[in-house]
Amino acid sequence: MGGGEGIKVVGVNxxxxxxxxxxxxxxxxHEVPRALARVMAAGATGGVLLSTxxxxxxxxxxxxxxxxxxxxxxxxxxxxxxxxxGAREYGYIARDRDAVRHLYRVxxxxxxxxxxxSQIQGQVREAWEASRAQAGPVLHxxxxxxxxVGSRVRTETGLGMGTASAASAGVAVAGKIFGxxxxxxxxxxxxxxxxxxxxxxxxxxxxxxxxxxNRTPERARAIAERLGARAVSLDEAWSHFAxxxxxxxxxxxxxxxxxxxxxxxxxxxxxxxxxxxxxxxxAVPRDVDPSLAQLENVFLYDVDDLQTVAAHATARRRDEIxxxxxxxxxxxxxxxxxxxxxxxxxxxxELRQRMDDLRAHExxxxxxxxxxxxxxxxARVEQFSExxxxxxxxxxxxxxKTAAEAGRGYGLLEAVRRxxxxxPPA
Amino acid sequence: MIVTLHLIVLxxxxxxxxxxxxxxxxxxxAPRALAIAVPCAGAAVHVVAISQLTLVGLGPxxxxxxLCLVLLQLASERLLRGSAVSFVAAxxxxxxxxxxxxxxxxxxxxxxxxxxxxxVLHVALSVLGLALMALAFIAAALYLLQFRExxxxxxxxxxxxxxxxxxxxxxxxxxxxxGFPALTLGVLLALGYGAEFSGGLHVAKAQVxxxxxxxxxxxxxxxxxxxRHWAGRRAALASIAGFGAVLLVYVALKLTQPGAERFx
Lengths: 426, 264
Description:
The complex is a heterodimer.
Chain A: E1 6-13, H1 19-25, H2 32-41, E2 46-51, E3 55-62, H3 67-76, E4 92-95, H4 96-107, H5 119-130, H6 132-156, H7 166-178, E5 185-189, H8 193-204, E6 208-213, H9 217-227, E7 230-232, H10 234-237, E8 246-249, H11 260-268, E9 277-281, E10 298-302, H12 303-318, H13 321-340, H14 344-369, H15 375-405, H16 409-419
Parallel strand pairs in A: 5-6, 5-8, 6-7, 8-9, 9-10
Antiparallel strand pairs in A: 1-3, 1-4, 2-3
Chain B: H1 2-21, H2 32-51, H3 58-80, H4 86-103, H5 117-151, H6 157-161, H7 165-197, H8 205-226, H9 232-256
């Protein structure tokens, strides 16, 4: 289906746009109301903006034009002037049923870069909450059901089982050693993005990041500040291997920096009392001397190990796609049935009642002026008025019912209500 | 009736075993609710069956041990937030129920003793102590398997399905610390019962030897954990060695003292 008011999704995601473009399109929470206000001013009657590191999508109840143009222009302004094709070049539009299915696939993790990841569920909820004022009844219902679909997929299928990224695999491996990670301590060697991401994942699980050690103190300080940790030099870090539970290593050194000579005695000594130490070596080339794994209480994992954990999980998750897609399809049908019939029956009833009241009122006035008519003639005039009303209302009634069956009742209802001066639906 | 109920229990525990071991045989894991409901149903029927038993003799003692094990398995599901204990406890309970049926569920001697509260408490606490020791053994075995996989960087079924090392260590410690007073009380009640109602101790020598040996071994494992602060792999090895020694001594005594019918 093309034009006319209906549900639309317009945006970009990790499949259609490279990271540097997605970064430009990303909207912070404070930017959402202004962006939506601009699209609403272009004719949309409802809007929700979902912006994550992997997607920026506007969910709208709108006509095709000009609301969609407003979105492209809004996104296009964030591109460098040299970008020839504008935002459209990176984007996509899904309409009506496809738009509903799209959001359900997004919330269940089927459309995620990491298949089945659960973070998106929270991001969908946050987007909905941030856009509550502009969402309108249809998008409220759509997002509410999208969260339900996400929960169903995660509960009824294995799409969310295991871990599917190297950073989250690090969390999973640490979890298999320590159980609850809350209250554990971790230190970071190096200040690369990967280390920061893994540290953030651990931090989300309640791990206290105590130290960030780096050759360049400025960068260490910046990360330490974000994670509530202390920045130290690499040489100061070795003694802390006696107390930390987890060590994340990601320096840019061309050779191993965590060596037996530097930390072997500290880890194997009495201070740890045999407590396990999980070392996540995320650097390439590796930061940690592999011989340290010989210590009984050391669990050492490098990038390959973590990618193996992630790959195991992804393979298992792929098997769950058909079951997850079935749930999405089932729920799309349910939403579409609701959306299609939304308010059609009460609106038709109200319309007929309103028209009949008018007919009765006008008939009474006319009959007062036609007092000479016999009772038979009066009855005939009344029949005529009823037949005329039925004729007038026949086409709008059929059109509304047909639109409802095609899932486009809501847009037409708005028009009918405006044309006949009826109250907007609750 | 008692045998029929035990056969139903055997079938339900067998089904529970099949459900928990399915992922290791390449089948899809059973829904968690079903994996808990089946042993729960088995335990419910088992309680009815035990209530009709006279708690004297090998068969009833094995049956009671199996029930304690299943109840501890279900309780440990909460601590571990998973069904790992059932990988060992479910088949073990099934075997124990099967053995109890084969051994005969009728009391072999001194049926009157079974109506004495001291005796019933002695049996119940001793069996509970043994079951907790078995639970400590299971937690220790799972710990060592998971430890081996984590050290070897293998991320297959054991890594996925077994609980974290720390929780297994906690379960092992809890089972030992709770099992020791239960077994101690069980032994003291046996002494009290002998002195109070049987005119002194008239028990087989093998039973005394095994009872005291078990108590000493359990006491040692608790001592190294609580007083010497052993934990992790060393504590797991101690638990396994202790439980293995208790089993070995039992089998040795059973073979050398075949006449001791009351002897568990």
